[in-house]
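Appendix B, example 12.
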Amino acid sequence: MRRGVGALVVALVAFGAAVAAAAVQVSVPAAFKQLLVHVKQQTKVAVLLPSKVSLIDSLKLYPSVESLGPKGYVLDLSAAPNCHEATACFVASFSGKQGTRLPGPANATLAKGDRGWFHPSTCGASCAPVTFEFVDGGAVYSFQISNMSAKNAKAVMIGLANNAVAAGHR
């Protein structure tokens, strides 16, 4: 009996490691490549994107421009076409906007000293994505990801923001 329990524990640990390793790396600039030329022509706000994000699930992603103007942009990655940020198909969002503030008191600092605001995923009737907003160059940037592990989410989101700032305008 003990041998069976030991084998089960080993199998569960191996399964957990396989699940943890199953995260999918998505190149964010590559996902939006065809849209970025148009976005950069229409907005004065620097387009800051992390090099890649790690998602829990392997999904076919549909990039879109949710809103765009001289003072800002919202870029979405969805798991279905024409999602328009609906909870069921929303995967991630990356935005930049001039003339606004962080939605709450700063609770994080980026490598360059930029202030940031982290909000974990919360669930009610549906689950809100992990959100990180930060100030850089006079604009407020927001990264939201629904398809990510909650483990170390704040550190992950700060890392994505640091990466985006270091990479500069896409």
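The beta strands are 24-27, 52-55, 62-69, 72-78, 90-98, 108-109, 115-119, 130-136, 139-145. The mean pLDDT is 85.
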